[in-house]
Design a protein that fits this description.
This protein is mainly alpha-helical. It is about 50% helix and about 5% strand.
């Protein structure tokens, strides 16, 4: 028995239980061409933003500690977290107009510019160099979530400076969305349409909140300059999401993903924190699209958030964690 893993997971579940029903506040500016604060009003406090952010480099770029199931833990640059923190800093800048906040934001922009990989065929992308053992990922990996975060950051940098290089890299970062994961892209071409992969592995992992977050950078692009390629990708992702949502519905709870790898649990429920996050994402998508599907699922999943369902879910989650060696 690995007591370190048990203690880690118990703390994680305890933190989840403390969270409010809506983990973030939704911005009131959702449709303006000028991209101000992000859709969710992220705060810079790592305790509220991402508990794995435990350090910063000399430029104020966040560093993550490794997850519990990584055999050789190390501090590392995690592009998803870096993008989220950049947007939190930008939210602070919009609130305060302090030059030091703007400077901090642009130091993180510089990180994205310096760490991109530019490929003639596959476009601009960023790699995460930390294993994801649960998905059999042991080499640096791509992510649609990373692409989306980078796009949202770079577009705000472009609008602040009118520097076309930021726009060009953001446009190039759209390219991986157009290709399947088996061809070097970040999309799983499924029977229900494109699913944007938070973790690009040998087979689709289909993490629900990652797909939804990936949509937001695409929508930013359409808002910022009416980019039709981004709008088409956004629309494809919306239709796919609507078609896939019934598969995530357990009747009393939600699946975290729809991973069908042979070693993976048949059902891996999300934690209560992720249930509330996904529900907030659906609330946002209704505001952006006015699609009744999202309002209907939001109300349905809100009813799932009660103690009796939580107690019913935990044994299923326990078995899933055991199977992927997180306990």
């Amino acid at each position: 028995m690995n007591f370190r893993k048990y203690i880690f997971m118990l703390k994680k579940f305890a933190d989840d239980l403390k969270k409010s029903s809506e983990p973030y506040i939704i911005s009131t500016e959702l449709q303006t061409q000028k991209l101000g604060q992000f859709y969710f009003l992220f705060e810079e406090d790592p305790g509220k933003l991402n508990k794995l952010i435990t350090s910063f480099d000399a430029d104020g770029v966040p560093l993550n500690s490794s997850y519990i199931d990584v055999d050789e833990p190390k501090m590392h640059y995690y592009p998803i977290s870096i993008g989220q923190y950049a947007l939190a800093v930008y939210n602070s800048y919009i609130d305060t107009v302090l030059p030091e906040k703007k400077d901090h934001f642009f130091r993180i922009v510089k990180w994205f510019m310096n760490n991109k990989i530019q490929d003639e065929k596959l476009g601009a992308y960023w790699l995460t160099d930390i294993p994801k053992p649960e998905y059999k990922i042991f080499t640096p990996w791509k992510s649609a979530f990373t692409q989306s975060r980078a796009i949202s950051v770079l577009l705000r940098a472009w609008q602040e400076t009118n520097n076309q290089e930021f726009l060009e890299v953001a446009e190039s970062a759209l390219i991986p969305f157009t290709s399947d994961i088996k061809e070097g892209g970040v999309s799983a071409f499924t029977e229900k349409g494109k699913f944007y992969e938070e973790y690009v592995a040998a087979e689709p992992t289909m993490v629900l909140d990652g797909h939804i977050f990936s949509l937001l950078g695409l929508y930013d692009f359409y808002r910022a300059n009416k980019n039709l390629k981004a709008k088409n990708l956004f629309d494809e992702g919306i239709e796919s999401l609507i078609d896939w949502l019934p598969e995530y519905d357990m009747g009393y709870w939600l699946r975290f993903n729809y991973c069908k790898m042979s070693h993976y649990p048949e059902i891996d429920p999300c934690t209560i924190g992720y249930l509330r996050l996904v529900n907030l994402q659906l609330k946002l998508l209704y505001k952006l699209t006015k699609r009744d599907d999202f309002a209907n699922y939001y109300h349905k999943f809100t009813e799932y958030d009660k103690k009796s369902n939580l107690l019913k879910m935990y044994p299923v989650k326990y078995r899933a964690l055991k199977k992927i060696n997180r306990l």
